[in-house]
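Q: Study each token:
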Amino acid sequence: MRVIDARSGQTLTIGQRVEYPDGEWLELVDVEPGVLSASAFIRTACRDPGGSGRVAVLSRQIPLTVRWLHPSFMFEHVAFIPS
């Protein structure tokens, strides 16, 4: 299964981190693949929306959007991280 970050369009492997221009980042820790559904354990860093300048690091399990007939990846088993 190919795991793609929806925000950057980058294909991720376990342990890989993608950094965004605003200083936030997302790291793929683990994936539980399935034929029609999947989930991932990710670690993210995001800025405090209150403007304090602090960065919060969150770890969480999220559902992935699984597709077999995406126009860019026809007949490939792909999952998208909704970032």
Remarks:
- The chain has one domain: 2-81.
- The two ends are 18 Å apart (CA to CA).
- The mean pLDDT is 88.
- The first strand starts at residue 2 and ends at 5.
